UniProtKB/TrEMBL annotation:
Its EC number is 2.1.1.176. PANTHER family: NOP2 YEAST -RELATED NOL1/NOP2/FMU SUN DOMAIN-CONTAINING, RIBOSOMAL RNA SMALL SUBUNIT METHYLTRANSFERASE B-RELATED. GO terms for molecular function: RNA binding; rRNA methyltransferase activity. It comes from the Bacteria. Pfam families: Methyltr_RsmB-F, NusB, RsmF-B_ferredox. It comes from Anaerostipes rhamnosivorans. Belongs to the class I-like SAM-binding methyltransferase superfamily. RsmB/NOP family. S-adenosyl-L-methionine binds at C262, S263, A264, P265, G266, G267, K268, D286, D313, D331. SUPFAM superfamilies: NusB-like, S-adenosyl-L-methionine-dependent methyltransferases. This is 16S rRNA (cytosine(967)-C(5))-methyltransferase. It is found in: Cytoplasm. GO terms for cellular component: cytoplasm. It catalyses: cytidine(967) in 16S rRNA + S-adenosyl-L-methionine = 5-methylcytidine(967) in 16S rRNA + S-adenosyl-L-homocysteine + H(+).
Length: 448
């Protein structure tokens, strides 16, 4: 990586122009420069992620000190200013003068010499005024306050406030800005947990036990996961504990037939295949070839033989599978409001009207899902969102289907998650309140 700031600038512009999703653009650059200096790669990643996750706060600050509003600026100048302000406000180890100078140099290098003075002026003013910035007052307008302070669009803040207390809403939006955990899910079929931990430590990775499940391992100080020998040997998959919990609640037993209707890139399907210990079968489906290829890459890496992939639109009923499955997992496409800390694009790209469309798509998928569960079998419904219309309402609809009843999941949960709703068959995990992504899991059984 010749210049991490220039690489970050390219990513920020691509994302701003909606030419790529940020995690993909960042991942591609890291892959391209996988042998570059570890420090440069870490700085590049922080600069991209930090600038993106704080974008609304940064834009508010730029608008205070620039005579031209952020949305009127040329894309390159906008990206440079955002990146510069991020360094000035949030990266203590970078002197403000270095942040300004490097942005000015990049403006000139990219053919914007005439605007380099403007870039310099705005950044130097922000640097001088950074202790005096006036942010919206909580007392006057709590929505604006939470939106600007935690870089969250106002409609999402309003949406959270309509479902949660002001304090819980603040905890949720704050949590999205906290340092992200990378969590590995140990694949027990491919070696012991001790062997995995030893192998990670040998490659200088800091390892800590997860909080909710024994499979979970938190890692820090790693550089490029795909280069680790334990990754190549399929000893783990990257998976948040909330997703592992969906697999755990499915409570699979050796020899079972399992259908995962929306499975790519395969996290939960692999978790369940692992628990079958080489027996039974997971049929893992997704909508497109591209998605199924992502799943297949992970299948190949873990080497599991009891999982089969297939392109299939989950809205279409497959008569051949009617009442044939011990476990059906329906991890539906959703608004993703629970994972905005990891996927920064969601909060900026999602539109309120899409929430409704998602509920009807989910309902279409759930309608076919119920048909596949054999008498005595279970249906697991999950999402990575925190929207009652996508979660509790859909779950209630499922519970009202003839022959289905909610199943108490209390005994399958770690002690501290044994909340009241678990008895009614579901749990809503909230970021900032529980130590994982925002996630919903519900379980129902078809009566014999
Ligand atoms: C939440 S993600 C699944 C994550 C996956 N279960 C895992 O643990 O890795 C939802 C998936 O639903 C897929 N999807 C969307 N519409 C679909 C449809 N009509 N039929 C099948 N899959 C669909 C998306 O491609 C996406 O991969």
């Amino acid at each position: 990586m010749q210049n991490p700031r220039e690489s970050a600038l390219d990513v920020l512009m691509k994302v701003d122009k909606k030419e790529a999703l940020s995690h993909i653009a960042i991942g591609e650059t890291l892959e391209k420069y996988q042998f570059s200096d570890k420090k440069d790669r870490a700085f590049f990643t922080r600069l991209c992620q930090g600038t993106l996750e704080r974008r609304l706060t940064i834009d508010y600050v730029i608008n205070q000190y620039s005579k031209m509003k952020v949305n009127k600026l040329k894309p390159l100048v906008r990206a440079l200013l955002r990146m510069g302000v991020y360094q000035i406000l949030y990266l203590d180890q970078i002197p403000d003068s270095a942040a300004c100078n490097e942005c000015v140099k990049l403006a000139k290098k990219r053919g914007f010499s005439k605007l380099s003075g403007f870039v310099n002026g705005v950044l130097r003013t922000v640097s001088r005024q950074k202790e005096n910035i006036v942010f919206p007052s909580r007392e006057k307008d709590v929505v604006k306050y939470l939106s600007v302070s935690y870089s969250m669009p106002e409609w999402i803040v309003r949406h959270f406030l309509s479902n949660y207390s002001e304090q819980d809403t603040e905890n949720i939006v704050r949590s999205f800005l906290e340092p992200k955990k990378t969590t590995l899910s140990w694949m027990e079929s491919n070696g012991s947990r001790e062997e995995l931990v030893d192998s990670l430590k040998r490659e200088d990775i800091t390892v800590k036990d997860g909080e909710l499940l024994p499979e979970a391992i938190y890692i820090t100080h790693y550089d490029f996961l795909k280069r680790l020998s334990s990754f190549r040997q399929g000893r783990f998959i990257v998976q948040d504990e909330s997703s592992m919990l969906a697999g755990k609640i499915a409570d699979v037993k050796e020899g079972q037939d399992i259908l995962d209707m929306c499975s790519a890139p395969g996290g939960k399907a692999l978790y369940m295949a692992d628990k079958l210990h080489g027996t039974g079968q997971v049929l893992a489906r997704d909508l497109t070839e591209y998605k199924v290829e992502l799943l297949e890459e992970n299948m190949e890496r873990t080497g599991f033989h009891n999982i089969r992939s297939q392109v299939w639109d989950a809205r279409i009923l497959d008569e051949d599978l009617r009442e044939s499955m011990d476990v059906v997992l329906c991890d539906v496409p959703c608004s993703g409001l629970g994972i905005m800390g990891k996927k920064h694009d969601i909060k900026y790209n999602l539109e309120e009207k899409v929430l409704k469309e998602l509920v009807s798509l989910q309902r279409e998928i759930l309608k076919t899902a119920v048909a596949y569960v054999k008498p005595g079998g279970v249906l697991i419904f999950s999402t990575c969102t925190i929207n009652p219309k996508e979660n509790e309402d859909n779950y209630r609809w499922l519970a009202a289907q003839p022959g289905f009843e909610p199943e108490d999941i209390t005994s399958l949960l770690p002690e501290y998650l044994r909340i009241e709703t678990a008895k009614e068959g579901y749990i809503q995990l909230l970021p900032g309140i529980h130590p994982c992504d925002g996630f919903f899991i519900g379980k129902l059984r078809r009566m014999k």
